[in-house]
Specification:
homodimer, alpha+beta, Creatine Amidinohydrolase, 2 domains, 3-stranded antiparallel sheet, 12 helices
Chain lengths: 372, 372
């Protein structure tokens, strides 16, 4: 797929949406959305992309100018270098346009900044129209180039998990949570990814009951080793969780009952994941099973989330979301059971939604593993 | 310093500010601000802290409940577990209060969420008052416990830089940008920090002209090795940049002229850094020198920024900021010169602002180093 072919349908989709809202323009503020539309990823750069009917403007700080010039993939984009406040430059550009309304990503600008920009533009008789989530919605369905990048990120992640399992109990026993998380990140980089897609979670023993536990300098494992990690490949993310066990096999067996419930819940969701089902229905497939076993209150998060340029993106797979799954959405399926003072078990795969089923993107085993 | 003694003055300061605005309450949304006031750091947890005149409420998702219960350091805080939308629970709590105005951190909520909450509360006849930046301003002046944590983070950072220099040219030559950045992060963790405070920048050769370059799988160094990194210690950050050189000593000497300009500019700023000077004046001390040597256009960012619970926080040290430096502010001083196709050089220290001078928190050399 050529570069231009990637961007053309994205831009068309955006323009269609805007025309439905009777808008000819929009201000994009999210770094990931700017990348999706232009090829420039200025992580936390505060860049602005102003899309007008006839011309596009990318406003960047001087320190991102070289990167922007090298990475922008679309023609006729005006790259504007801003020494100071980008809103001032934006207002100057807009002065030449006789328009009354400008779309804006209200979900990607804080309230104080919104008020400041609104005031600056009111002098020109222009008002801002909240168009939250348009590009995010478009990003939720992946094209072939995106799927290819995500598959590569998942392959690397798979390989790293397998390598950790092969490392064996003796070597893992020597590592603290923080050291094992570092080991994982080292393997991700050495496998030619661009590094981790989020802060690696490694939780030993009872710490695993906290789903977002931050790895500590402790080595005592008490059975459970929960690992939640992922990498980036051409800016696209992977996300995987596996829970394995270490130590005396008989003692580890006390975790098997919970493990099997989580695994069956996960498989139930995977088997029902296809185009047409709503996110809340899919969440329900796993949740009802966990509930039926008496652990409903211990499954304290949604079933999953979309993954792409961001590790958490649309759609959210939870009890409330009425979003309907569509072909080529890429999501995680990750039920978990967390018991304070006992530990937590989570199993997470990434899948591509298909017409009649889904494709699981990992080949790593989900069997109950006690490290040898 | 006891735990209670840490939090009491922070809360007093906040209450004083609110009373000036004739408010008795405020909604805090930033994770760092919630930690500063309670001891709970739910990174990207979407937690809410509602501070009312008579009682405090911390609203967290189920998956952060255990962590919140374990880490909250102040008495009489009601920890509320939210299974679903936290704004619904917040609205229910506020229903019992006969108040008309609620302060809110407008800089820490996006415009769409603000509108949604505003609508929910308008039914109770309550309105939101933007109180952006109060806690951030309070955080900009550090207390003794914060300074102690920051100093520890800086000590670890110092040690890691020295260790990289000791590693020597032969070993560094074998590492790609991505591998050297990983090596730095490994040393940070092994030195008992909580890991990096931001994504490590390692830029070789011409790549260094992009101040936010993302480390690649390339090994060719062409003289320059720019390293910008830091760690966390008890949640407090460090941030350091050093530019060193590798390869033929004669070839490296072509960078010495630029290096000396950056270093002299940095020292000029350090010598003028004290309570009472404005941020723009301090920025000017370095910028005027760089300008006088003809490289003003190549110094494309502010002189520095505050560092604490976040690696970039108040105050911003740039050409526009009228903020006056105060004793016990902790800031970076980091001029740089970036030349496309040639490379970039930046030297960054962290300092504590004092009454009559500042204390530099690193002991790592700033001499022109060619790795042996």
């Amino acid at each position: 797929m050529k570069v231009v072919e990637i961007f053309t349908p994205r831009v068309e989709k955006l323009k269609n949406f805007l025309s439905k809202k009777e808008l000819q323009n929009i201000l994009i503020l999210s770094d990931a959305n700017i990348f999706y539309l232009t090829g420039f990823y200025g992580n936390k750069s505060g860049s602005l992309l102003l899309i007008m009917d006839d011309s596009w403007y990318l406003l960047v700080s001087l320190i991102y100018l070289e990167q922007a010039k090298k990475s922008v993939q679309i023609k006729n984009l005006n790259i504007i270098c801003c020494k100071n406040d980008k809103f001032i430059k934006l207002t100057e550009i807009l002065e030449d346009y006789k328009i009354r309304s400008i779309g804006i990503e209200g979900n990607n600008i804080n309230f104080s900044d919104f008020c400041r920009l609104k005031k600056m533009l009111s002098g020109q008789g222009k008002r801002l129209i909240d168009c939250s989530g348009i590009v995010e919605k478009s990003r939720s369905v992946k094209d072939q180039s995106e799927i290819s990048n995500i598959k590569n990120a998942c392959k690397i992640t798979d390989r790293v998990f397998k390598s950790i399992v092969r490392t064996g109990a003796a070597a893992v026993n020597k590592l603290s949570e923080a050291e094992l998380s570092l080991k994982i990140e080292e393997l991700l980089v050495k496998s030619k990814s661009e590094g981790k897609s989020f802060d690696t979670v490694v939780a030993y023993g009872k710490n695993s009951s906290m789903p977002h536990h931050f790895p500590q300098n402790i080595k005592s494992k008490d059975g459970i080793i929960l690992m939640d990690f992922g990498c980036r490949y051409n800016n696209y993310c992977s996300d995987m969780t596996r829970t394995v066990f270490i130590g005396d096999r008989k003692k580890c067996n006390k975790f098997k009952k919970i493990y099997d419930i989580v695994l069956k819940a996960q498989i139930a969701a995977i088997e029902n994941c296809r185009e047409g089902i709503t996110c809340s229905q899919l969440d329900g497939k796993a949740r009802k099973f966990v509930d039926s076993k008496g652990f409903g209150d211990n499954f304290g998060h949604g079933l999953g989330h979309g993954v792409g340029l961001e590790v958490h993106e649309e759609p959210k797979i939870n009890m409330e979301s009425k979003t309907v799954l569509r072909q080529n959405m890429v999501i995680t399926i990750e039920p978990g059971i967390y018991i304070e003072g006992f530990g937590g078990i989570r199993i997470e795969d990434m899948v591509i939604v298909g017409k009649n089923k889904c494709e699981v993107l990992y080949s790593s085993t989900k069997k109950f593993i006690v490290l040898d």
